[in-house]
Amino acid sequence: MPRIRVLMVDDSVVTRKVLCDALSADPEIEIAAAAADGNIALAKLPNLNPDLVTLDVEMPGKSGLETLIEIRKVYPKLPVIMFSSLTERGANTTLEALSLGASDYVAKPSSSGSLVAGKDSSGTDPEGQGAVCEASSGADAANAARIEETWKFANGAADNRS
Question: Is 58 exposed, middle or buried (0-12, 13-18, 19+ CB in 10 A)?
Fold first, then answer.
């Protein structure tokens, strides 16, 4: 069975690295590419043909919600998982993302013991063109499993890719 190809979209280099580490630990997932903002992601989508997109909600330039709207215009069935550090105050954003067509929503860890000492936005790559996994940090296997489960759910637990 082919691996699940993921496009990660997040303005934080550290967050992209943590997510990359977590997803790369799963043999069924391949990191196809990373993008630092919505415009870069939209430009990469046609050539990458990913099976799933992870999309940060809050980014400079085109926000995650604006990017999601554009993705849905061209790729209405592509699974998109929204990532955000927003908590209860972000409940409206979560509902909006789901109403705009997000497949699922995952909260980024925000406590001091998670990600990199609670500073997941310490590094940015404005061009989003560096290596897919840039910084070092630990992995979050729970998010990797949830991404895989969401992809399988969105595809009817069958491999419908061509």
Answer: middle
Please give the pLDDT value at position 80: 96
Position with higher pLDDT, 130 vs 59: 59
CB atoms within 10 A of CB 143: 20
Q: Per residue in 16-69, pLDDT tens?
A: 888 888 888 899 999 999 999 999 999 999 999 999 999 999 899 899 999 999
- What topology is assigned to 4-154 in CATH? Rossmann fold (3.40.50)
- pLDDT at residue 107, rounded to an integer: 80
What's the token pair of residue 81? Answer: 């998982």
- Tell me what percent of the chain is helix, strand and coil, each rounded to the nearest 5: 35, 20, 45
Q: Domain ranges in the chain?
A: 4-154
The residues with which 12 forms a beta bridge, in sequence order, are: 124
What is the C-alpha separation between 87 and 43, in angstroms, rounded?
30
Paired tokens of 83: 């990532």
Encoded amino acid at 49, one letter: N
Contact 110, 87 (CB under 8 A): yes
